[in-house]
Amino acid sequence: MAAPSVVVIGAGQAGSDTAAALRSQGFDGRITLVGAEGVPPYQRPPLSKQFLAGAGGGGDLALRPASFHAERDIEFVARDPAVRLDRDARRVALASGRTLGYRHLVLALGARPRRLAVPGGGLDGVLTLRTLTEAGRLRDAMRDTGRLLVVGGGFVGLEVAATARAAGLAVTVVESGPRLLARAVSGAMSAHLLAEHRAHGVRVLLSREVAALHGDGAGRVREAELAGGERIAADLVLVGIGAVPETALAAGAGLAVDDGVLVDRHLRTGDPAVYAIGDCARFPDPRTGRPLRLESVQNAADQARCVAAALCGAPRPYAALPWFWTEQFGLRLQIAGLGTGHDRVVTVGDPRTGRFSLLCYRGERLLATESVNRPADHMITRRLMGAGAPLPTPRQAAAPGFGFKEFRQTAAV
To answer: Do 70 and 167 share a domain, yes or no?
Structure first.
């Protein structure tokens, strides 16, 4: 009998971690890792921060040593994206014409930046940031410009804004919603980040939309026109208005998709031989049961380990606690849990000191902790939530002198 084979489509964090976890968990069959880019797997978070600021080259971002795949008998296929999936034959066709057979297939397809669909959106100097190539273009462009417009007040947009401002560029952020990071953090944290950006000289416009981009005679962007008529001079535009999950390969093969490839709590699609993980996958939230799609390193890495365990004969439902982080102007924000639907926020610490945590509750239940330069609060929250241990009530958290370290001792975790 032929050795079992696993083909992993997508060589980002999720795909690379799947291949690595399969070997570390004892899988001895064939593993093929297929990537669309021409470089080995690399870290994406630094693209909007350290890399953009000029620290190091692409090689410094490598997820693993250059010899990793060969030493573990993992075939890495670069610059040859999958274009067609035949589930009946259990074969994947690549752009080069090569086909790969599999016993199990892991779709780690990732997501692509959402484009700005306005007149002038295709002008030179209008960029997105998702890949190393795109980050290189943005970094080069920043060296030759003085005015950056960031469209979108999400994580990527704000990190780029902070990096560019630190490099001396004049930066304007235009956000269509009423606050920054509205889908990710509490209103109080949005307000704190807004104040930080404005204090560092970033012009932030909320509840405003870009209606058009205008260029010079050579086809390069020179200004943005907002709905209402205001014009903003810009030599460079970074579009950071979210990402669209890559689902075409799955949909073309008849798999269910809806804002992602739909999977069950074991991260399986409707085909038991096919799994989907990472940014492209929409899975049942283990806490609420509602469909959820997350774009984070934590989610990619934890789902990779979960699928690897299943393929090694130890299946378990995916139940990892979501957590996130961002760095802007020396501020390190760490989020444990998901605060969606919270109705109360308790502040621990003093925001004026730049070290505090916001605890997001729905009723008496702690949903998430948002910590600014208080890593212990973040780690303790993760440990308590992950263990299913008692969590501080709103009354406990609001009591004078409350501290997570002392609370953890009483919880004995």
So the answer is: no
* Domain annotation covers residue 319: no
DSSP one-letter code for 351: G
The secondary structure of 25-78 as a DSSP string is: TT--SEEEEE-SSSS--B-SGGGGTTTTTT-S-GGGGBSS-TTHHHHTTEEEE-
Name the token pair of 33.
């890792």
- The angle formed by the CA atoms of residues 147, 153 and 157, to the nearest 5 degrees, is 55
Which residues contact residue 32 at a Cβ distance below 8 angstroms, ignoring those fewer than 6 apart? 5, 6, 7, 8, 74, 75, 77, 100, 102
* Residue 341 token pair: 């639907």
What is the residue range of 97's domain? 5-112+244-311
DSSP code of 240?
A: -
Pairing of strands 203-206, 323-328: unpaired
Given pLDDT bands bounded at 50, 70 and 90, which one contains residue 2?
A: low
φ/ψ bin of 216: left (φ > 0), alpha (ψ from -120 to 50), beta (otherwise): beta
Q: What is the pTM of this model?
A: 0.96
SS3 letters across 242-311: CEEECCHHHHHCCCCECCCEECCCCCECCCCCEEECHHHEEEECCCCCCEECCCCHHHHHHHHHHHHHHH
282 bridge partner residues: 262
Q: For the chain, percent helix, then strand, then coil, each to nearest 5?
A: 25, 30, 40
Examine the domain organization and report whether 26 and 92 are in the same domain: yes
CATH code for the domain in which residue 349 is found = 3.30.390.30
Strand partners, 8: 33, 106
Nearest alpha carbon to residue 380 among 355, 409, 354, 405: 405
pLDDT per residue over 212-223, tens digit each? 999 998 999 999
